[in-house]
Structure formats: structure tokens, C-alpha cells
Design a protein that fits this description.
It is a single chain. The chain has helices at residues 3-43, 47-68, 72-75, 80-96, 104-107, 111-134, 141-156, 162-165, 168-204. The protein has 206 residues and is mainly alpha-helical. It has 2 domains: 1-99, Methane Monooxygenase Hydroxylase, Chain G, domain 1, CATH 1.20.58.2140; 110-206, Methane Monooxygenase Hydroxylase, Chain G, domain 1 (Up-down Bundle), CATH 1.20.58.2140. Helix 6 (111-134) packs antiparallel against helix 7, helix 6 (111-134) runs parallel beside helix 9 (168-204) and helix 7 (141-156) runs antiparallel to helix 9 (168-204).
């Protein structure tokens, strides 16, 4: 029956898959952590540290792809979260720097994972807007809000079954709520700023 040989080959194959899986998960954890640090660098305006971190993220992603492509049917699912985080870190910087967003193909990221990451970046943009409001930096908060709305509009236009777009629809619903809250915060802060200017002008010219 040759069962010994059959199961010897089976165990050898599974052992190789298990080792590759462990290496992928290790790279994924490091990549996700580095993306989180990169986003913090942006909020703190530590842009040189951000660029250094992105170089490392790019290498980690490349190493992940090499392992995943050895057996994509088994490993492709492990790219979902790290590629979302990678997209979020890159898109967040591009938006606040007023640079063009890179294409998914530019980053070698799966388009669905890219879309999921774009949905997530709306939350970081809200945090950025609120930080600017607290620091009385109001010059570009309307531009950021418009960008959030533009991303949402394009994401909302994706009309495919959930089997293809995964949990994108849920993220889009969350993004809508985030934008509405942010729009209210921006409106109040601008009104308060206008009121402050009126008071200051009236004090200067009684």
C-alpha cells in the first residue's frame, strides 16, 4: 500500500509549508508594527524617521511576497492585514503632504487590500484633523475633509459581491460615520474661529 512513503511525502510537504507560514507570520507582525510606528511618525511630524521606516516596510513586504508566491493558494490570505496597514501608512503621508496617491500596482499590493487600507486611512485623517483643531491649525482641515469625502465616494462606488470585496462594505459604513463626525467638528471649529476674529476686530476698533 506504500503508506509509509505516502505519509513521508505528506509530512515533508506540510513541514515546508509550516516553516514558510511561520516565517510569513513573523514578517507580518514586524511589518504591521512598523506601519503603526510610521503612522505615529507622521502624526508627530517626524518625517525623516517615517521615510526610514517605510524603507524597512518595503523590504519586509517584498520578503513576504517571495514566500507567499511559493504557494499562493495557501498563503495569500496572510497578506490581507499587513497590506492594509502598508496602504494606510503610505496613503496617510501622501494625503497630508498633498502628493499623488500611489497605485496598488506601484506598491505591489493586492487591489482589494489596498481599498481596505484606504477605508482605514479615513480614521487616521480624522485624528489628524482633530490634532490640528486642538493646535489651532485650521488652514488645511477643509482640504483634508474633502479628501476624506472623495475617498469615501470612490469606495462607495465599488459595487461587487462581498465574496470579492470581503468586509469593505462594513469599512465604508464606518468611514461615512467618521466623516460626518469630522465634518461637524470642522464646522464648529471654523465658526468658533470666525467668532474669535470678530471679537478681536471689535476690540481693535471699538
Amino acid at each position: 500500500m506504500r503508506l509509509n512513503k505516502i505519509f513521508s511525502e505528506l509530512n515533508e510537504t506540510l513541514d515546508k509549508l509550516d516553516k514558510d507560514r511561520e516565517n510569513i507570520l513573523k514578517l507580518s507582525r514586524t511589518l504591521i508594527r512598523d506601519c503603526s510606528i510610521a503612522i505615529k511618525n507622521i502624526h508627530r511630524k517626524e518625517f525623516s524617521q517615517y521615510h526610514q521606516k517605510v524603507l524597512n516596510i518595503q523590504k519586509l513586504h517584498k520578503d513576504m511576497l517571495l514566500l507567499v508566491n511559493k504557494n499562493p493558494g495557501v498563503f495569500l490570505k496572510y497578506l490581507k492585514t499587513p497590506e492594509q496597514e502598508y496602504t494606510e501608512a503610505i496613503a496617510f503621508y501622501a494625503i497630508i503632504s498633498k502628493e499623488p496617491l500611489p497605485l496598488p500596482s506601484d506598491l505591489n499590493i493586492d487591489p482589494i487590500n489596498y481599498a481596505l487600507g484606504l477605508a482605514d486611512v479615513i480614521g487616521e485623517l480624522r485624528r489628524y484633523v482633530l490634532d490640528n483643531i486642538r493646535n489651532s491649525i485650521l488652514d488645511d482641515i477643509n482640504d483634508v475633509l474633502e479628501c476624506m469625502d472623495d475617498i469615501y465616494t470612490h469606495l462607495f462606488s465599488i459595487d461587487f459581491p462581498s465574496g470579492l470585496i470581503q468586509d469593505l462594505r462594513h469599512k465604508i459604513d464606518q468611514a461615512r460615520n467618521i466623516i460626518e463626525k469630522t465634518r461637524g467638528d470642522v464646522s464648529i471649529s471654523l465658526q468658533m474661529n470666525d467668532l474669535k476674529r470678530c471679537i478681536e476686530n471689535s476690540e481693535k476698533h471699538p
